[in-house]
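User: Predict structure, ligand zinc ion.
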Amino acid sequence: MTCFIYDGYGDAFALRDGVDFDIYSLVVRQVPETERFQAHDSATVDEIEKTLAHEYHHVYARRYLLGKQDTTATLGKQWIDYFLYRIVSEGVAMQCNPSSGFKRRILEDTATVAYCLAQLNEKFAGLKNGTISGDEIDKWSQANSDQTARQLLTDYLKRNFPEDKREELFQLHIIDRPIFEYVVGWWMITRILKMPGGKDRVMEILSSPEKILEYYNESLPPNSPEMRVTFSY
Ligand SMILES: [Zn+2]
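Assistant: Predicted complex:
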């Protein structure tokens, strides 16, 4: 089932068996306010289809990706599985509607990606050896889409734009702020897809999400230590 709503609160997301599509956020808001109700051709049927494909990927891949969840594993391991599920789910879904422009540039910004990968290495290792509590990781996870993502956007603007432009750009691109699972998922899946047999590897990852770490490391050129995953599942 696809629900079309008009509230401007979110964009599109997967429900348990369907997809919610916010027409206001994804169509109307794409047009400057003064022209909003005159020119709807800036959001094409093609873009709408791609967004729905992204969300339907979440719906249909859920059963495979979550099928592996081991409820007898340690809490730390269950958290790692949850993050891997999110990383793979977003990384694959984003192939349906690849970002462009500013959003694409910040998603692929080396410093942003390196920061998120360092976080993955640190937090996953802590979860595996039990030095990070459930409470701490819950806070970390929530901050990823909020304070941390805002900070990464601020830092990116500082590195790339003059000071007098930053505040305006921050407001304009707050929706494009880099969120951990999206940055890591897009980065890893895109690299793996470019490897020989990449598509088959990604199909395999859909039922064994932990394989993303190994295949991703294989995709790296030598001498890129800041981009490597040092955590082993
Ligand atoms: Zn998504």
